[in-house]
Design brief:
binds flavin mononucleotide; 188 residues
Length: 188
């Protein structure tokens, strides 16, 4: 927690640029949920916006629809098991899903949205209502209200996986419980 610092909003899109699997979290009326979503993407730089596909059957989606808020964060190798657990069970079926997953939650001052410890970066969004996209494609758009990162791996607007502990590498999902951890840096 000591390593978490705010990310300048004009650089926040870079958190999502590397294409890591995200964790989507939301809260409404004191009930919270978290689920992984691989289909998350930057949409605009300033104001910073992003899209994420959250199926209408998911419990997390109901919380987003009701609260108008959600968070995206980038889980790391260090919380691979927790990430998979959050994506293997629905809160529709098990009200204690989040507690049983082992994921530890925390809050940023001024925001009543649970965030997951052990991620590389965190972004809190206000839903931008687009009913057609939401109903037809389960595609949600959010405007970023705040972003933070673990300074060991993202600092001054740049990822630095090369020098960070390997447990802080982002996760890149294939299917069936198989992921890649982010690989080498290449510059051109
Ligand atoms: C690695 C991973 C990535 C996933 N990506 C997505 C996604 O992009 N969109 C989606 O709607 N569901 C996705 N899922 C499925 C949900 O995370 C899963 O169904 C979850 O249990 C829903 O939880 P909830 O009903 O408590 O919200 C993914 C699952 C895994 C394991």
């Amino acid at each position: 927690m000591d390593n978490i610092f705010p990310v300048e909003i004009e650089k926040a899109y870079r958190l999502l640029n590397v294409g890591g699997t995200t964790l989507v979290s939301a809260k409404c009326d004191g009930v919270c949920d978290v689920m992984p979503a691989t289909w998350a993407c930057p949409l605009d730089v300033l104001p910073c916006k992003a899209t994420v596909v959250v199926d209408s059957s998911h419990f997390t989606r109901k919380l987003i629809d009701k609260s108008g808020m959600f968070a995206l964060q980038l889980p790391t190798v260090g919380i691979l098991r927790e990430t998979m657990a959050l994506g293997s069970v629905s809160k529709n079926d098990d009200p204690e899903k989040v507690e049983k997953s082992g994921a530890e939650l925390f809050y940023m001052d001024g925001f009543d949205i649970p965030l997951v410890k052990g991620c590389a970066g965190w972004m809190i969004f206000k839903r931008v209502p687009e009913p057609h996209n939401e109903q037809t494609y389960d595609l949600l758009i959010g405007e970023c209200l705040g972003a933070w990162a673990d300074a060991r791996v993202f600092k001054n607007g740049h990822w630095k996986f090369e020098s960070a502990p390997s447990g802080l590498r982002t996760l890149h999902y294939v299917a069936g419980g198989n992921f890649y951890a982010i690989g080498d840096a290449i510059s051109v």
